[in-house]
Amino acid sequence: MVAYDGAELDQLRMRVRAARRAGSIPMLVFGLTTLVFAVYDGLVGYYFVPMPLHWPLCSLTALLLLWPIERVRSRRSGIGEGRFTYRRAAAMLVTVLVAGNLLWFLPFLRMLLWPASVLTILALWQRNRRLACWSGVIGGMMIVNWFADLLLLSGHYQPIYMGAGGVALVLAGLAERNHERRID
Amino acid sequence: MSEADRHPALDLDDRVHQKTRLALLTVLDEAGRADFPYLKKVLGLTDGNLGRHLEALAGEGLVEIQKGHEGRRPRTWATITPLGREALAAEMRVLAALLQRFRDSRDGQEQAGS
What predicted TM-score, i.e. pTM, was given to this entire model? Predict the structure, then answer.
């Protein structure tokens, strides 16, 4: 006898995902980290590391922040960190940065290490469709803006559209948090 | 009976397809691990019921149970194993095949009736 159908199991999975805040927490952390890095880049005119590594470092910082946040959240809620943990994602990003020296010379591939793109790759790995959509759209707009800026405006406005991407991630994270609260 | 004629229901895994165990494995597949109070809450189970099903799954190596303490409070976590993930994925494939077979037969009957 089949007791559950696929839709019921999908709903159950969505409830667990919502209770884990699996969409809102990473969007808020990535958004705020991006905003801090953009403000430093734009207003203070300071890069934490040489420019090509500035945004990959932002992604790594967000992942490293998510690691303890998820541990605390997991201990409080009694729900684990899911199938692909932020610790593993951070380790993989470090491996890519260390082993993938080619990224230094291939500016387009370097964009994949930008915060919203890293979040999209992570979401696809976690099979989290909503997070992948939000971060994919925001990341896509950041990359389009980068191209337009580079071609039309000599690349001076990067901090503005990266900062706007950070704000968009935070706003999307807040919207997702409301959605998760309704499901949970 | 040839392999092609074999009904997918025959491939259902007795260890997994009971509804509470299927739901437990689904929750643990998504969460990685979960503690007893959360599993009880999300699935609406009693202590005894949850414990019995988790023990059955642990006996088959599909989940691992870790009993520990946080401060003075005892806390028990259930974690899905790689074998558990494989068993759940296989079960979902069989359920999908069953559903497809049901739809095909229903569509065939409707076409014959019209």
Answer: 0.82
